Amino acid sequence: MKIAVCAKQIPDPANEVTYSNGTIERPEEQVLDDTDRYGIEVALQLKEKFDAEVTIISMGPSGTQKGLQQALQMGADKAVFVDDESLKGANSLMTANVLSELAKSLSADIVIFGTESTDGYSGTVPQQVSRYLDLECISYVKAVEINDNVTLTRQTVEGSEKLNMPEKCVISVTAGGVEPRYPNFKDIMAAKSKPIEQVSISDLSINTTQNLEFIDIETVENSKSGEKITDEGEAYQEIVNKLKELKVI
Amino acid sequence: MKTLIIGEIINNNLSSGTLEILGKAKSLELDVQVVTVGSDENPSIGVDLCKQTYLKRQNNSLNLSKAATKISEIIKNEEINLILGSSTYMCRDLISFLSVDLNSSPVSNVIDFDVASGNVSTVNSINGGESLYKTKINSDQSLLLIRPKAFDPVEVNFNDDFETIDLDGSDLEVFDIFIEEKSGPQLEDSKVVISAGRGMVDKENLELIETLASKLNAAIGGTRAIVDAGWMPYSQQVGQTGKTVKPDVYIACGISGATQHQVGMKDSKFVIAINKDEEAPIFQLADLGIVGDTLSVIPKLNDNI
Description:
The structure holds two protein chains of two kinds.
Chain A: E1 2-6, E2 9-10, E3 19-20, E4 23-24, E5 31-32, H1 34-50, E6 53-59, H2 66-74, E7 78-82, H3 92-105, E8 110-114, H4 125-133, E9 137-146, E10 150-155, E11 159-164, E12 169-173, H5 185-191, E13 196-198, E14 212-219, E15 227-230, H6 236-245
Parallel strand pairs in A: 1-6, 1-8, 6-7, 7-13, 8-12, 9-12
Antiparallel strand pairs in A: 2-5, 3-4, 9-10, 10-11
Helix pairs in contact in A: 2-5, 3-4
Chain B: E1 2-10, E2 13-14, H1 16-27, E3 31-38, E4 46-47, E5 51-56, H2 64-77, E6 82-86, H3 89-102, E7 107-116, E8 119-126, E9 131-137, E10 142-146, E11 158-159, E12 163-166, E13 174-179, E14 192-196, H4 206-216, E15 219-222, H5 224-228, E16 249-253, H6 259-265, E17 270-275, E18 288-291, H7 294-304
Parallel strand pairs in B: 1-3, 1-6, 3-5, 5-12, 6-10, 7-10, 14-15, 14-16, 16-17, 17-18
Antiparallel strand pairs in B: 1-2, 4-11, 7-8, 8-9
């Protein structure tokens, strides 16, 4: 079984996202998107049961490759990435086009994603990749049971439903779906010798265009700066009064 | 502009998200039709405002990709230029599939859009609503995923006047379909919402919130952090990756107010926030902020309401 897991390197989420010409500014050192840890965890659980090969696929400025290293530290076998100036500010479809080509080049049977990145959160790339690959997409997976069969539980608007994972498909895993593992010292050292390979965009068949044109970013004054009271035991009374005034009680 | 809305069924009628988008499309005087995807047997989803087509799927298999292929056909036959859907699980899947078929990248998380001289432009909210990101779409077909509550819903009379197209099932069999019991006020339409965050410290403390919610006839929500921790089902998550709420009163209990959460609640009419940390970003959105321990404030509220 060959598994490709998408991992995105993003600016440290502790810092506010900044934009330049409508595109997120990316520092040299980016970290692994926590959202992707769930997908990586599912891949690693599959690997433990079925002896699969797990390859990280990624697109974007590679920089110090810290985020890719973090993905390898969790236990993935290798990483391939595309980093090209022409992909700066790539829309979701272009991103999916590139990632599906990478998955194809690896002959991946199963392609796994988080549901949406923390910095761009378009939430469409897993489904787009499945369409490019002509595979079914099992989206919003919130639980995985691995026996001889793999049973996936999907989140739906009304509740949930279960499916058996087919031999080939694309999966997106919701945050909290599984418990991502923490690498230990040995894992961290082992990751250093794992291969990270750059793929040239000219080796991929990309037919998407930048159909979305950035116009403007406008700042809105959000601050309400309402009343702020420090509780010294009686602040609940302020809430009660306010709820009465608003006719909630 | 010829426009297609991907409709969704909730409680046998069109979802509120669908009606909100229809309201906006009507206000822009777009030439609109609705294609609704669902598995209900006899829904009442015809509307007196425009053409309605029902793509009926089998609920015992996952066949959204087949639904998308059918919608692609309709888009080509009817020469549709604008495709709109609500940011729900199903529409996100469908619009993503369509974007590949039409080779046009969609715009997600849209909170407003306009059509002028054949061009579609969109507005997104970024950085937790601190900034608005504006985009112009340069392709023959524009695909938009619209956040719930972005527009006012249109008033419609539902009828049974629509064409039904039966979709084939797929090999991907679905089983153990679980429908969450919905009791009490729901997040989407409750006038009061109480949400819990990490400041509630322990899952057991959510009982305090439940007591308060029953006194105020409020719906209960939570942050991504506590949903991830397994304290609440995903369906109760408020925020970027969860639900958008717009109640008259929103009470944030032990929530710091990460941008991911703010997106889902910032349009609430009156926000009450209780948090130990005076610097918590939630206070910037609060009309009434209480700097204090949620676990000591809520019991007193429960005793005095």
